[in-house]
Amino acid sequence: MSDRYPGYDVLAKRDGLSWNDKTREVVGRRLAVGIDDHRFFDEAEWGVLRALCDRILPQPPERERPVPVAALLDLRLREGPGDGNRDVALPPTDVAWKRALAALDAESRQAQGRGFPDLTPAEQDALLRDMQEGRLAGPAWQGMAPKTFFSARLLYDLVGLYYAHPAAWSEIGFGGPASPRGYVRMGFDGRDPWEAAEAAPGREDAARRENRHVR
């Protein structure tokens, strides 16, 4: 639940007519992934990945069940199909991730004398910014461009996995899969009764309701 959509929990639809058995099965698999579940990454890689996820997608400390982003990535790389395409500048996804985590930790040790998980949040952010802006070039990257990995793999994978989880759906007021229910009120600014109601609509939304322009 979120302050923006108070009282809204997308899982309340789970056993109703909104979802079918296939939808329940798919969502159930995501919910079954534990925060520490990993078999693809070794312990050193896992520590770097967990720290990385905490900086890219910090979650509310009061959240009872955080979205297990790192564990979902581990599961995808261990069992799931690939994207069907990739940037020609990057190796296969599983290879790219292992190489990037090792390289990020090596860059951290070179710059700070400590592994990436042991850096302060500010130091981690600074190193990630260097990665994003292409200022890292250590030998552990083995010719893979850190900047390309950051934009084409790191953000794509982690953010995608986060927003594929029901906890994130409730946070943004997303109604979940549309099958088999579909949508009824398809007009501009329409909201079906089963969709989340925003607690304090933004200025633009209020202006639309008043049928006037926002300046």
From TrEMBL:
- Chain segments carrying region Disordered: 194-215
What is the species listed in this Swiss-Prot or TrEMBL entry?
Azospirillum picis
Q: Which Pfam families match?
A: Gluconate_2-dh3
Name it.
Gluconate 2-dehydrogenase subunit 3 family protein
Q: Organism's domain of life?
A: Bacteria
